[in-house]
## 1
Amino acid sequence: MASAKKKSQSPHTPPQNNHVPAPLELVLQLMAIPGASGDEQQIANFVRQTLVDAGADPKQIRYDQAHLHTPIDGNTGNLIFKLPGTVRAPRRLLMSHLDTVPICVGSLPVRRGNRLLSGNPGHGIGADNRAGVAVILHTATQLLQSNLPHPPLTFLWTVQEEIGLHGARNANLSMLGNPKLAFNWDGGAADKVTVGATGGYRMQIEIQGLASHAGNAPEQGVSAIAIAAIAIADLQQTGWHGDIRKNGRRGTSNIGVIQGGNATNVVADHVFLRAEARSHDASFRKQIVKQIEAAFKRAAKKVTSSKGKQGKVKFRGQLDYEAFRLAPDEPAVVAASNVIRQLGHEPVLSVTNGGLDANWMSSRGIPTVTLGCGQLHQHMAQEELHIPTFLLACDIALQLARAN
Ligand SMILES: [Zn+2]
């Protein structure tokens, strides 16, 4: 790597006297602020104010308009803070999502030994992802309050991750300053470097049958429930439902929702289903979707009324996120692994079957690794934050931001 050359001082003088919260204090403050998906304005304001209090130039803190392109009406876009570098090196991006799942609204964390647990029964603490928010916010405040050298940095707090990665998907990339390495905090173990994730496709299936009196003239009806049953049994028997393995290719599918019918004495004329297909292999995922559609079409042909009428099946679907896999020599992977080793841990490269903001960042041209920050039992009332892991994540983030 070229030797880092010190440039002139950053355009503002770091204030030395402001109180900058320690990581644990910061995460507790963040957890207390409600902010489910689409309702991130209050938490974004807190992040912004903390940056300003630490000496950030307010002109370098901006919001994009991602929330205007998402399926729900959000009250803020993604929050972006650009910090000019003090050394010449490729720009680095540090990111985390701002929103929590609804069960974490009402978070009341209490400390038990080296863990934060919920003190409000039935509610999670929102470690997912206030821990990630705190990790990169702490890094930003540390750099603002010190003269530690660092490359140009972009901090990105995304909205609406939990409901389909919409903040990252719609982030205004032109506002990010062209980062070459990107790091995302969300998850458990701090030494786990997630370098790939599956791609997910979500579908809605509507079966239109024909209603008829179930006692007087069932033969004149077309049961949408019978069509659904035949289709699902077909997928299950042919190995296209659940864990799918075909000729060395792997994926998953799930019929997750089925709704239909009104009364036992009516042939059900309408069934609505929701299903998903996932695979790291995009072409195999498309094949799974095709098999699901074909099974429903075949099933529709097998259920006929006495007058030869058949039901109809309609499909709608959308790609939730594309799969990605970073190469082992990708600079972000190398940098994350090196920093984890420097701090005395062995990096564990992993690939996940869930979707991450990193899916959209990577498929949109910004290779992004994801690191953990001490979350446990996410999306549940039993959620915890493992404090030593969270503090290690803070150390890792600061070293990555300094390009050490
Ligand atoms: Zn998360």
## 2
Amino acid sequence: MLSKIQKITLGTKEWADSNVNCYLGCSNNCRYCYAKKMAIRFNRRTEDTWRIMIPNQKNIKKGYAKRKGRVMFPSSHDITYESLEGCIIVLEKLLNAGNDVLITTKPRLKCIKKICRLFFKKKELIQFRFTITSLSNELLKFWEPFAPLFEERINALKFAFNKGYMTSVSIEPFLDEDPFTLVETLYPYITESIWIGKMNYVFTKNIKSKFINFYNHIEKINSKENLLRIVKRAKNYDESIIRIKDSIHNFLNKNNI
Ligand code: SF4
């Protein structure tokens, strides 16, 4: 079982030069959330209160200048119905300052429709990066209990794509043993890239025995054999589109593979 904490690669450095966040906590409450782990470690939230999203008024109200390089927004919470209003205020300031913004989210269709409508004139500054980790709603419901199901996420991807936005997907952490069925399903709606990464951290406190299979499944799919299979399969695609994340490369390097 994955109980050892491995070195975390948050994705930030691979994707952007800086991050902006405007809420503390995230109602999706993913069982592998590193931001939650850090918030608990530094006594900012507890296991129970992480789900309640508190606006960071300072970050919502302040001004944003043009930054060097790409800005990832958000990185430690999601754009949900409760955070949408604050996120739109911040996004507007970032875009008005001329920033290139990577919008990362487990997409809710209504939120994406609103963002697409509001910022259509700035769409050349926006790239969506939707996190879609599995085709299986059973796996999504377990690992990302309050995030949207697969159908809503792919519909959001299709919507943004059809509106002419730049689109990309993060399959991190991949939850299907073979993530390439998902890759093939998403591929037609991608203008930029699809990133595949592994689960780096998982909350293992008080696991109920009825859920043990979910954890065993993650251990199995993160075996070096399966990771090697994934790296090899990725070579069948354009390497500028199908990207393997450092979380996989680092694991394989660490194990001298
Ligand atoms: S969506 Fe991201 S920030 Fe929110 S709980 Fe899941 S992993 Fe954490």
## 3
Amino acid sequence: MRRSVLCGYGVEAASTLHPFIRIAARMMMAGAIVAFVAAGAVPAHAADKTFTLHAQSKDVPIGAGLTFRAWTYDGEVPGPVLQARQGDTVHVHLINRSSEAHGIDVQAAQISPEHFVGDPMKSVNYSFRAEVPGVFSYHCAANPILQHIALGMYGMMIVEPRGGWPNGPAQDVSIVQSEIYGLPNGQHLIISDQSKVVAAQPDFVLFNGDINKYDLEHPIQIKVGKLVRVFFLNAGPSLSAAFHVSGVIFSTIYKGGNPADAMHGLSMLEVPPGSGAVFEFRVTEPGDYQFTDSNRAHEYKGAMGIFRAVP
Ligand SMILES: [Cu+2]
């Protein structure tokens, strides 16, 4: 059983991977493991939530021994997960510590886009009420937006429904998919290749900022029979994603992460760039369940990982 669900990742992995990733995966070391999001810290009643982020240039590790010359929020790609509850008043502060123009467009906000950039060389400050629950993108709003997102300026915002998620407690996992354009130089450093960015031809497609982050040595552990709730964001910047877990039919998917847009009994959902979704499922037996972008060229370029189900 275990072997069959590994198909395409384990023994046969060599033939399904981008040749560079194949080599790099062998070199790959210890490193970062599983990033779970505990959604528990959200208050029971409407509250004020303040998020202060810093725009900064930084070379960030993206797994497989590679580094990416990025523009970031808080030195991370993707930026930190922002969490609020429907009805909260959200205050956004962006401090620009770089010599580039930056801004921040939180897509959960229904306000004039003029707020998102302001003077892009200075701090950006605005507030909004999180009226609609869902999984939203936030991203840089300075032009050209395409370039700023391709360089790493994006992250996920989760707005929990006022009454909590309809199907109750679950193991929460957040996954941000994104594209990297450019191949590494002799120092294993990737400088974004603008012509590939414009052509929408990425060299790598990542989950949570790393190539094959959740491989066989670093799976995301889940429990047999326990509801898993995946907060999924396709940060793009340009290609669609089709989130799929091998051996799983999602009991519920919320398009955009909004319970008002619920679907049931689907094996995947196409998520446009800049959009999010919530995927819920349970597994009935132990094993390794591969999750992937079912656009197989994206899987080949790094968008794959393992849920390891234990009793
Ligand atoms: Cu920017």
